[in-house]
Every structure is written in C-alpha cells, then in structure tokens.
Amino acid sequence: MTTPPRGLACALFPVGLLLIAMASIQSGASLAKSMFPIVGAQGTTTLRLIFASVIMLLLLRPWRAKLTAKSLRTVVIYGMALGGMNFLFYMSLRTVPLGIAVALEFTGPLAVAIYASRRAVDFLWIALAVIGLLLLIPMSEASSGIDWVGAAYALGAGVCWALYILFGQKAGNDNGVQTAALGVMIAALFVAPIGIVHAGAALLTPALIPIAIGVAILSTALPYTLEMVALTRLPARTFGTLMSIEPAFGALSGLFFLHEHLSLAQWLAITCIILASVGATLTMRNELKPLVPAD
C-alpha cells in the first residue's frame, strides 16, 4: 500500500532539488551583474568561486573523500568544467540578456539529452525544448541586437555544462555530495588567476564582500550541492532534459530583477520548455537510479 507513494516521492525528490537549484542560480546571476562595473565578469567569477569554496569546505568537509588516481582525474575535469562554465557564462552576461544567455548555454545539456536518447517519446520532449529555445532566441530583425561574441561565450559555457553533467555524475557516484565541494575548489583555483590579473586590488573592495557571499551561496554553494545530489539519482539523459527549464528561470529572473521584459514568443517558449520538463519527469520514473548515501 505504501510502495506507490514512496516510489513517487523518490521520483520527485531529485526533480524538486533541481527546481530549487535553478531558481537559486538564476537569482544569483542577476545579483552578480551588479558587481560587473567594479571587478568585471572575471573578478565576479573569482569572488563567487572563492567564497563558495570556503562555504562548501566548512559544510561538506571534502577532505573525507577517498580519492583514487582515477577518481581524482574525474574530479579535476569536473572542477575545470564547472569553472569554465561559470567564467564563460558571466562573460556572456556582459552583453547578452540573461534569458538569452541561459538559452544558448542550454545547448550543452540538450546535447547530452539528444546523445543519450533511445526512445521515441524522449525525442518528443527534446523537440519541445528545442522549439522553446528557438523562440527564446531572436532570429529575425531583433537578432541584430545580439552581441555574437557574447553569444559565443554562452555557447562555450554550454560545452562546459555538458562536461559538468557527464563528469559530475561519475565523480558524484565515487564520492557523493563531497564532490561538489572538491569541484568548486578546483574551479576556484582554475579561474582565480584570470580574475586577479583582470581586477587586481578591486577584488578587496569591502562593499563587494556581502554581495559576493550572497552570489556564492545563491549561484554556487546551494545549487551545485543540490545538483550533485540529483546527479547521483538521475540518468544523465533525464538530468539533461529536465534542465530544459533553466532558460525559463533565467528569463523570469531577468524580468523580475533586471527588468528584461519578455515578448509573447518568449512566453510561448517558456511554456514549451516547461512542458518538455514535465513530460520528461512523467516518463522517467522507471529509469531512476536507487537512492545512494552521500558518504
């Protein structure tokens, strides 16, 4: 009698974690843009990852992870992918609206979903997500307003996002949620030299510290911890397809926090993307991995 509710709870638990993570990371992205005039996208990424490393080091105690040579290699690649994803995404936000940048970045997880798909119904959800993305990206006369260098940065972030999914799942299976802390520490070491060279002493501006801590929590510490838990409970294909809702969160965050108003086509895009995510959720229950301990 209790098996179906428990099975439904197991199916919805990682989905709920992903929704919270996406809302958090897009809110943090909106807050991060306020730091750009002082330290640039490079310095903002550096401060975000450094403070997130400290927070996750204290909370998750990653030194308890038992790393082998093979698992260390996976964690290093995961951390570098995470750092590249953060850096390139913030570079794109300098000239590309938040909702459009997230839509372009999503090509990474979408590619993971397409590569791993096998059933016809999977392609239905992917097709809906693609329609939504095409509607989010202005392709007519409005496209002249898009900075294509910024768009290239967003696409590069998408490549890193795909690597983050694939290697994050492998690393998470080896060391659980502690992998998120290890990955952020490696990402900080990878990006910090770029931020220090670009921003210099401006990184020590006292007024930036509270904002940087807020961005670190909203955009890194909280969402990446939740995503690592979800990654160990979902197939890579399902995770990639569910992340199709990310552009919707980006567009809504841009509307509420940055006053980036949406057109009718963009609202239709959000509807398509949400339908794709709901469809993926409803058809994934038989493919979920069993829950695994974090340690």
UniProtKB/TrEMBL annotation:
Keywords recorded for this protein, A-Z: Membrane, Transmembrane, Transmembrane helix
InterPro entries the UniProt entry points to: AA-Vitamin_Transporters, EamA_dom, EmrE-like
GO CC annotation: membrane
Membrane-spanning ranges: 39-60, 72-90, 96-116, 123-140, 146-167, 179-201, 207-226, 238-258, 264-282
SUPFAM superfamilies, A to Z: Multidrug resistance efflux transporter EmrE
UniProt-listed Pfam families: EamA
Boundaries of every EamA domain copy: 149-279
Membrane protein topology class: Multi-pass membrane protein
Location of this chain's protein in the cell: Membrane
NCBIfam families reported for this sequence: PRK10532.1
Family: Belongs to the EamA transporter family.
The protein's name: Transporter
